[in-house]
Amino acid sequence: MSIFENIKSAFKNVFSNKMRTFLTTLGIIIGIAAVIAITSVGNGSQAQITEQFDSLGVGRITVSLRSNSPRNMVSADALTYQDYEKLREIDGIKSISPVYSGNNASVKLLNPKETNNASITGVTPDYENIMSPTMLYGRYINDSDVEAKSKVAVINDTTAEKVFGYCNQSIIGEKISIKTWQGSFKYTVIGISENSDAKTESLYENEYPEKMIVPISSAFRLFNRKTISNIVLVAEDADNSESLCSAITNKLSEIHKNSDKYTAESAAEQMDAMNEVTGTVTMLISGVAAISLIVGGIGVMNIMLVTVTERTREIGIRKSIGAKNKDIMLQFVVEAVILTGIGGILGVLFGWIFGILAGNLMGVSSVVSINSIIMAVMISTAIGIVFGVYPARKAALLDPIEALRYE
Amino acid sequence: MSKVMIQIENLKKYYSQGSIQVKALDGVSLRVQEGEFVSIMGSSGSGKSTMMNVLGCLDKPTDGIFFLDGIDVAKLKDTGLAEIRNKKIGFVFQTFNLLPKLSAIENVELPMAYSGVPIKERHKRASEALKRVGLSERMKHKPNELSGGQRQRVAIARALVNEPSILLADEPTGNLDSKSTFEIIDIFQKLNDEGATIVMVTHEPDVAQYTKRIVTFKDGKAISDEIVKNRIIAEEEMK
After folding, report:
1. Is A311 on the interface with B (CB under 8 A)?
2. Domains in chain B: ranges and CATH
3. Which end of chain A is more exposed for a tag (fewer CB within 10 A), N or C?
4. Nearest-CA neighbor of A13 among A387, A314, A389?
């Protein structure tokens, strides 16, 4: 009997009891569906993270105060403009800029239209080299702006649309009114950049969509602060970024006379860290899925043993008309593989649907790779073989006389 | 001189049931020529069923000589025996033993599936075999849609389809009414007339009268072996 005929008759048997088939394969379905759903969402978010960090520039290093020990945080540890000036002296830095982020609920852009809370970022001209924004109109902040504490601002096109209702050359030179807890200030728009966050907004929901870049010295005046949020820089040689990072944190510890309070992380490291997190989650759930698959396999084995007992007489008949042990063996292994194979296919379908649903919920695109489908089919087939062999062997070794007598 | 189909000498089959040794066959010798129609009789426990199982290569003898169509069957292992069952033996059982999920023709095709006959030829040969037993009209029916006599005819077609050396029938009329019994016996007699060698186990002396030779078993031994003198022809009885 050819393998094709075995498959045909196995399908017939498997479909003659649909409910049993469904319940038997449920474990496999859940296991495979979990693997497919998780890997598809995992792949999707990984691809998205990679794309995002690529667009941000992988070579960028962010220096900040560790935020995981707030109890030990003292004001002496806070990063200052002086820190920035000292770090600037370290060799191997291409561009470096202090950043003051005024992400505060009481910051509003008032004129001509009132907007929601705004994000005001104080920087030095080097920030342009680090972030490399696309300038639509006007210019970026320059050294004399910083020196003179000029009330000038670079906004992005989204902000322009919100505040002015339009976005063109004529906005350059217009005034924007900013309200902080320090009072109201009028700033002149000197440049408009393209909103680079637009395409990645889904991943980091932006709480302060109205963005504005001002000279760091002006930011200090706006918020009456002397400390800075962090320092961003780009290494001359990206391969050197690791040693550069340790040089920076050492220098900062030296200045502030403390230890292990600062982090200097490149975007690549952050990406690795995030990938590691998604990787760990994927591994964890895959582990659960693996257990589900094993349990599913045991379920298949159990039902195959029941099937063999139920069909003892059939086995006797087949043997009496000339079926060899290996024919019976093949028949039941094929049937087990068909069972788990159906489970695998249904699992892929459910996993696919579930991945898309979960992806939509999490704002991540779900990517079902052909590899994971092939893997799922291979795994479910392998389960069918592994857990089908024992019952099939039992069937094959039945004594034909005993089997024929079975009622 | 016609061919010897079954040659059995001093055949023994011992079982151990707990500590007791059961001598199911205790030195049986039997010779069946091609074209014979033999019935094996005996009460239950006489060893006739064991004889049938050994003849059908479902069971291996403990000792003795057994040649089937010139093949030394006593020495064969599982796979070899399966091949003999497939090609040299056609089985007909009391309880028909058809596969309930398969149609009549699919049941008849099954032995050929195990001997690797191409699908097209299987279909052709199976419908010919069903025609021989007069069931061409009901080829697509499932066993539960057929009467007992019709089921047994399907079983006979299945037994015939690989052109075996012998037909073994184990109480083939045991589950049938008298009309069906005549029909089945009639088929056997006609097949025998066409040259088939048939060995039939029965405990009904009436049924044995339709065969050509009666071998009687008792306590694991063949105690008598005689030619049927006034053989009854089923076709004439049915008129």
Report:
1. no
2. 35-61+75-238 (3.40.50.300)
3. C
4. A314
Could you write out the DSSP letters of every residue in A247-269?
A: HHHHHHHHHHT-SS-EEEEEHHH
Note whether B56 and B89 are within 8 A (CB).
yes
Residues of B within an 8 Å Cβ radius of A: 53, 56, 58-59, 78-79, 82-83, 85-87, 91, 93, 97-99, 101, 110-111, 113-115, 158, 162
Query: Chain B residue with minimal CA distance to A397?
Result: B78
Is A405 in CB contact (< 8 Å) with chain B? no
Task: Tell me if A304 sits within 8 A of A335, measured CB to CB.
Answer: yes
Residue A69 CB burial class (10 angstroms; 0-12, 13-18, ≥19): exposed
**Is the ipTM value over 0.90, yes or no?**
yes
CA geometry: angle A349, A354, A358, nearest 5 deg:
155
pTM: 0.71
Name the residue among B14, B11, B31 with its Cα closest to residue B199. B31
Longest dimension (CA), chain A: 105
The answer to whether the peptide bond before residue A112 is cis (omega within 30 degrees of 0) is: yes
Tokens of A194: 């393209």
Instruction: Quote the CA–CA distance of A297 and A289 in Å, as a whole number.
Output: 12
Neighbours of A274 (CB within 10 A): 16
Please give the DSSP secondary-structure letter assigned to residue B215.
E
- Supply φ then ψ for residue A253, to 5 degrees: -60, -40
pLDDT in tens, chain A (407 residues): 778 888 988 998 888 889 999 999 998 999 899 888 888 888 887 777 777 666 655 577 888 887 655 555 567 788 888 888 888 888 888 889 998 887 665 667 776 677 767 788 899 998 888 887 888 898 999 999 989 899 999 988 888 887 888 888 888 888 888 888 778 888 899 999 887 655 444 334 444 556 788 999 988 888 888 888 888 888 887 777 778 888 888 888 888 888 778 888 877 777 777 778 878 887 888 788 888 889 999 999 999 999 999 999 999 999 999 999 999 999 999 999 999 999 999 999 999 999 999 888 888 788 888 888 898 889 999 999 999 999 999 999 999 999 998 87
Yes or no: say if B90 and B82 are a contact pair by the CB < 8 Å rule.
no
Burial class of residue B111 (count of CB atoms within 10 Å of its CB; 0-12, 13-18, 19+): buried
**Cβ contact B113–A404 (<8 Å):** no
Q: Which of A321, A325, A335 to mutate to test the interface with B (most CBs of B within 10 A)?
A: A321
Maximum distance among all Cα pairs of chain B, rounded to whole angstroms: 55
Contacts of B85 in chain A (CB under 8 A): 319-322
Strands, E, within B86-196: which ranges? 89-92, 166-170
Determine whether the interchain pair B87/A322 forms a contact, defined as Cβ–Cβ distance below 8 Å: yes
Question: Rounded distance, CA A172 to CA A152, Å?
Answer: 10
Residue A70 has a pLDDT of 53
Name residue A115's amino acid. T
CA-CA distance, B70 to A108, in Å (whole number)?
Answer: 106
Q: Where are the alpha helices (DSSP H) in A57-172?
A: 81-87, 126-131, 143-148, 157-164
d(CA A396, CA B200): 28
Which residue from A366, A241, A313, A349 is spatially nearest to A25, judged by alpha carbons? A349
